[in-house]
Amino acid sequence: MRALKFISIPLIISIIGILELARINTIYFKKQLVFLILALILFFVVSKIKFKKIIHQYLLFYIPGIILLLLPLILSKGAIKRWINIGGIYFQPSEVAKIFYILFLSSFFSKKERKKTGNFMKALFMSSLYFGLVFIEPDFATASTFIFIFAIVSFAIGVDSNILLLLGLAPLSAIFSFSWILYILLIISLTIYLFLLPKRRFFFAISIYTIAFSLGLLTPYIWNNVLKPYQRERVISFLDPEKHRDTSGWQVYQGKIALGAAGFFGRFGEDYNQKNLRFLPAPHTDFIFSSIGEDVGFLGLVIIFSLYIALFWKLYEIVKKSRKVHSKIFAVGTLSFFIYHIIFNIASNLGLFPVAGIPLAFLSYGGTHLITEYILLGIAAGMYERGE
Amino acid sequence: MERRVKLIIYFTILVFFLFTVELFKIQLMSHEKYKELSRKNYLRVIKIPAIRGDILDRNNIKIASWRPVFRISILPGILSPNKIKKIFSLTGLDSLDYNVNTLSFKRNYITLKSGVDFKTISKIEENLDEFPGVIIDAVPTRYYNPQYISLSEILGYVQEATQEEIKKLNLDIGDVVGRKGIEAIYDSVLRGKNGKRFFIVDSRGNIVERDPTPPIPPKKGKTIITTIDANLMNYIDSLFLPYDKGACVIYKPKNGEIIALFTKPYFNSNTFLKDYKNLISNPQKPLLNRAIQGLYPPGSIFKLISGLIALKTRSISENTLFNSCTGSFKYGNRTWGCWLESGHGRLNLEHAIEQSCDVYFYQLGLAVGFKRFLDELNSINLPLYTGIDLPHEKKGFIPTYNWYLKKLGKYNVTEGYVLNLSIGQGEILFTPLSLAVLTGQIAQKGWAVKPYIVRPKKLDTLILNVEESQYFNAVLKGAYLVVNGEHGTARGIALDSIKIAGKTGSAENPHGNKTHSLFTAFVPYENPEYVITVIVENAGHGGEVAAPIAGNIIRRLYHLK
Q1: Which residues of A touch B1 (CB under 8 A)?
Q2: DSSP letter string over B337-393?
Q3: Does B29 reach chain A within 8 Å, measured CB to CB?
Q4: What does the pLDDT read at residue B512?
Q5: What is the ipTM of this complex?
Q6: CA of B38 to nearest chain A CA: how many angstroms apart?
Q7: What is the pLDDT of residues B27-55, one digit of tens each?
């Protein structure tokens, strides 16, 4: 029961979430309540697992994750293979695979000399199978979750910053390639950076330019020929929601109205708000942040922000106080998991990022992500409590 | 490792700080804007059309009022294309007029059809559950008293405003504007102010609450009282029964009131838009309000003016006798006939007017001289355009000397043209209304109040510039003799109890075999109260057709048998 202090904050957030779901639709409330109870049970169960003895067998975590990712690709019949159906319940294996992936990373880097570039490249190579399998589902949002976790963990364990630059350059050149000014600025700053390096590194420079040029050319091609129209639309509508308010920007536009009309204290008591009159799209999933914001206003949302930051701080303390490397790394992975989901969901509600179907931790309706979140916390708490 | 993780945490807190700034902007700084947008989302405003003001005749008979017309509106957003098609078939609408698929995406109420009959309404009302988003209401619609359709050309009609008018006049969609007649001229007076009704709808357009705030009631437009006598108009209509085309003006020169402004043929204001195709192709030109737009040669009525010009220029005196009329007159190498082939003998001005002797006026014209005649004609300020409060009044025409020079060439303009001019044939054109005003000016020795249908705040006077009122005496005496003289051309209409004066005219016209029959009169002779001007197209001589009509009207005006 000592583990309870680790989940006091998540529990408060979860209760706020199910209360909001009760306001939207009692069916969501009842189901989510069941999921929450299930998640709490699993939290206690996984907190008892002793990882100490098996933690060095990284394949033990790597392979189940891969199998989970293969399941929907094999079993699902639709064009989009993200879910599998178990006895009438839809289940997204890629969510659970995230647990195995974080376990794999903590296992791998706890055994190997983690700062060594060769080991880092090996981890990157193994991880790319995760990225790739989710990518072909296709599920860009989840694929980028894996990449984000990998990047944060790599940064935390102290991988050479030049190598991280090499990796970070990929998404940067892709995004900047849409504006030739930004792209040229990127190339110029890279060149300056290379000149400022204490030692001339020929192969490093070659790889930097290769990534920058190939992605700069490839991205416009992918944009025009590979991306599905709905994906393009989401990105475009994100860029200018007011203009696309009748089509794809409608959701973001209505979400902003919900937030803006709420003001400082929210419009909890008002009958004719965005949610009740069904102007707010997907208030229980993608837009639960706006939905809550409509009820509790600026004040309430700032409190929720504080709760999330408190959670991050708690995880940071686990990183700091854990004795074993693998539990430190696992806590970092869990932290990056939460940062990713929370930041990108809120950003999309505020119209700062495309709506990508990323659930908001502890708040969005859905069983798989809630259970995943509590399992991650359970493992981290268990490792810490046992002094691993 | 801790140091780097701490960096990540700080970075995350920074991101949350940026979120807070963004939230501050959205929720606090733009709060009012988003509140309004949210209100716009759910608040649907439906206009309650204002009732257009009534139009009354001088005896307060309602000639234009309103009645409710049923209207079907839909909120297309919640009706499937199939449902819309079903409504189309129920109401007898042609779905080709609307694109059903684009209709079903629109977000506001759209009026599908107004003027739906009661049977269709009840059919849809029975199945209203099947058609959510369908609104049936009664719209106050302009209705013209069908007993008085002879007033249609004065009244005009109403039509749904165009896009430009909606913008220019700040109207709502579906509002009507007046076209032609009083409806057009007094449009802003007659139009009231629309009211509003509020509905709260959800994102699918379902009505969640009706009237969350009380409706704003509409304001009815102002009532307009005209100077027209509607029953007299119908009486004139009955007098015109044997004739196809013509016009009649009854006017009070003392105060400017138009008692009747009749034109035939006329349209029906109630069915104007439905009839429009036929109206525009009808060779009788019913769209022409002949009383203010028909241009006619004044014929012998013009002899009153010729007489005035001759007296004013001192070319003749009241007693001047020209050569005897033998039924024709030789000038140059041409012979000019008088309408009476047996001839009138020797006449002075008043008797020449009484008998409308052409030969007298040929000589009068020559005595004045062609150029002088035209110069005088252009300087006496004839009321060719009266400025009555009706749209599209036409201006009459009198030529100038230069006009002849231009038309005929310098060497072809001869004195002989004054012969035609002095008897009112040729290029001179008047509208019936301007003839009536002219008659009033002569009857009152030089002035008449500007005519109107709705009394203005300030009355204007139209002056006929003849310098000295004594010049009118002989002309007026002649007009008196036209009705009351032994040989008067309209002697058939003389009355014992009241003295009528007037002048007949027969205008030649290139289109018909028979001349236009003209007569303009004023009563009583000594103290003119009414002017009556009658024109019947292609009906014969003035004394034969137009004068008896005027006689009947005068008898009715004075309640005589």
Answers
A1: 156-158, 319, 328, 332
A2: E-SSTT--BS--HHHHHHHT-HHHHHHHHHHH-HHHHHHHHHHS---SS---SSTTP
A3: no
A4: 64
A5: 0.88
A6: 6
A7: 999 999 999 998 888 888 888 889 999 99
